[in-house]
Specification:
With 75 residues, the protein is mostly helical. The chain is built from 3 helices and no strands. The chain has a domain of 35 residues. Helix content is 49%, strand content 0%. Helix 1 packs across helix 2.
């Protein structure tokens, strides 16, 4: 569904977009839609970035066994 809206642009930006639309044999509307989609996708990727920071805490614990956690009970 398309909706109508008004956007105020710098004159040079509009002229450049119109020129590109003519070169690509497409509409100004399509140029703006592609540009807005690309911008929103880029911003969404920035927000989705998760960074895990690690600290060196000494001896590695990735090779522990069950016996390291549960020693034999004294009977």
């Amino acid at each position: 569904m398309l909706v109508r809206t008004t956007v105020r642009l710098e004159e040079s930006l509009k002229k450049s977009a119109e020129k590109r639309a003519l070169e690509e044999n497409t509409s100004l509307q399509e140029i703006f839609q592609r540009a807005l989609r690309a911008y929103l996708k880029k911003e969404a990727q920035k927000q989705a970035k998760i960074i895990f920071k690690t600290l060196k805490l000494g001896k590695s614990l990735d090779n522990l066994t069950r016996e390291d956690f549960y020693p034999d009970p004294e009977l």
